[in-house]
Amino acid sequence: MTQLALVIDLNVCVGCHACVTSCKEWNTSGSAGPLVDQNPYSAEPTGTFFNRVQTFEIGEFPATETLHLPKSCLHCEEPPCVPVCPTGASYKRKEDGIVLVDYDKCIGCKYCAWACPYGAREFDEQNKVMKKCTLCVDRIYDQSLAEADRKPACVKACPTSARLFGDIHDPASEVSMAIRGNGGYQLMPEWSTQPANHYLPRRQSRMKIHPDELERSDNPRKLDAQLPKPGTAGPTIEDAVGW
Amino acid sequence: MRPTLSVILLTTLIGAGQGLFLALYSVQLYALFHLLPAPDARAFYAAGSLLALLLLAAGLTASFFHLGHPERAWRAATQWRTSWLSREVIVLPALMGSVCLFGAAHWIDWRPALASLPSGALVDVTLLLGALATVLTFALFLCSAMIYACLPFLREWHSPLTVLNFILLGGASGFTLATAFAVQAAPPLVGFLAGWALIITGLGLAARLWSLIRNYRLRPRSTIQTAIGVKHPKVVQKSQGAMGGSFNTREFFHGASPSTMRSVLWGFPLLAFALPAALVSVGLASDLPAAFVAAFATQFVGLLGERWFFFAQAHHPQNLYYQSIS
Q1: In chain B, which residues have their Cβ closer than 8 Å to the Cβ of A154?
Q2: Of B3, B132, B174, B185, which sits most exposed with the smallest number of CB within 10 A?
Q3: How high is the ipTM of this complex?
């Protein structure tokens, strides 16, 4: 069994939104029709996106860290959005585990969006159907593209290679090894949705330095500060061994 | 969650229709055993079924306004194996059909006897049609409520109390309506129906208070820490990836001020339970038929508020990702 997924390295993501714009560009130009926006150049621009980059501040100033979290459909292995769909428009592909919406069957009742704890689905206000990340299903199998280009648009766009794409059920795949070796985790594990997408945590390189490592014990600058020699009145090593 | 008018109307209207039908059929069962005087079949059962049918049809019509593609609504009947919404889509028309047949059989007085009970009472076709419609009524209550109760992370909804409340609140409004209806159609039954309206309204209040207390005590299982997978007590969102809002900010936040929430919280028990009970009691004591109509109207408005609050009170975990714009 194959389960395609993204693995996103939060240690590397710089929050540049290149994956967002690349995703939007590819998926608004595809055969499934545009990903429309409302008021794109007005005061309240809004629209449908498959992918969002969100930013969180961890800790309190001055001890803060910034975390950029790219969030798209996680292609759960137990997707709660699929069984609730009354029309069968929402489905999970057996062959590669991608969760998709059939835009021709969707009645736009939004129940699947209610059933997704991650808010990964966004309703298209113009086409009146539910939309979500397709893992660029129209791209990853396209034989007319070069082998290296058969990846989701977001993965191709990422300037820091924070996004990996592959089969997480294949233990030897790049993504599986990244999850195993770098502490890959899932979002909201408490709902047993088994998200296929994993995140690699931010990792901080810290050195443990002991005080005696900061100065050489034979540092010549210490010569003047050497301890006084023991007095002649006290016992010496020679007293112990000289008889 | 953002309460949607179409869904509020759907659930309250069909609830009242279902309750009204249950009231009609209760009367027929009681009359079968001579516990109540048999009402005029056309004026009470047939006209009452028509009223119930109108409420169910109005609810069904309202539900279409919730859909992006109403012309594809027929597809919603296909996934009954997994989806409670799909089951509701099947059961609601089935109930409408059986209520229609029940009313029609009473209207044309088509009551061939199927069997006779030891007491001598005749079991006729209308009784069988009514039994079928009763099963479908409870099935519809179950389906409508399970649409909400089956979502585990909407914890305010994920409880058997949701099903209980749908049954009791639908039943309460239906029996209150039946009381108001019986004033014209079958005056001897007013006392019986008003009594049950009071009992079910009281039970509805108790069950709803129970669920309000349960929801008040709920502690969120998802936190911003589990949402982004960072173990630190203080995590603050700094951007959500869009400045002008998105579907996620529109669909999952009710947008009402805390004072509005408080007013509805204190207002709906008053309008849906206390005032209708008082008005029904006034109607019983003073023989003032308008009191029963006022009781139903008040209760229905109260139940609209109750359903609004039901939606608004539910916290969706996706909101953790949409805490601040920038």
Answers
A1: none
A2: B132
A3: 0.92
